[in-house]
Amino acid sequence: MVRPTLRRRSSRREAPESCSALPANLLWVRTGVEANPQSFWAERILIAAAVHAGARGEARRIARRLLRKDPDLTVSEARRAWPFRPPFMARLCDGLETAGIPRT
After folding, report:
1. Counting Cβ atoms within 10 Å, is residue 56 exposed (0-12), middle (13-18) or buried (19+)?
2. pTM exceeds 0.90, yes or no
3. What are the tens digits of pLDDT across the range 61-71?
4. In degrees, to the nearest 5, what angle opens at C-alpha 27 toward C-alphas 86 and 91?
5. Which helix (H) or strand (E) holds 24?
6. Number of other residues whose CB lies within 10 A of the CB of residue 43
7. Nearest to residue 67, comparing CAs of 78, 82, 81?
8. Domain map of the chain by residue range?
9. Buried b (16+ CB within 10 A) or exposed e, 58-94
10. CA 68 distance to own-chain centroid
11. For the chain, how far is it from start to end, CA to CA, in angstroms?
12. Which member of 25, 80, 89, 98 has the lowest number of beta carbons within 10 Å of its beta carbon?
């Protein structure tokens, strides 16, 4: 019996060079934001998804744009407003904070 070889993931994340290098799920969220530019919730999710996909520069750019529209946004506010389970919220809030959304 031949066992599949497990590829070890690099601990170093590198930013994708172009949109074609971004994961499909990140592109899907981006398409949703573009279709509904007034949706603050979709942008928050896009920011966190970009951070976790390794596209931190893009996440910071989107976060700056969102903060211009919603200057009072904080990670604490987002945590209180979202009804998701704690592990999911932790990833979302970590992504927001990493992208530059203020903690409190």
Report:
1. middle
2. no
3. 999 999 999 99
4. 15
5. helix 24-35
6. 23
7. 78
8. 23-98
9. bbbebbeebbeeeeebbbeebbeeeeeeeeeeeebbe
10. 18
11. 55
12. 80
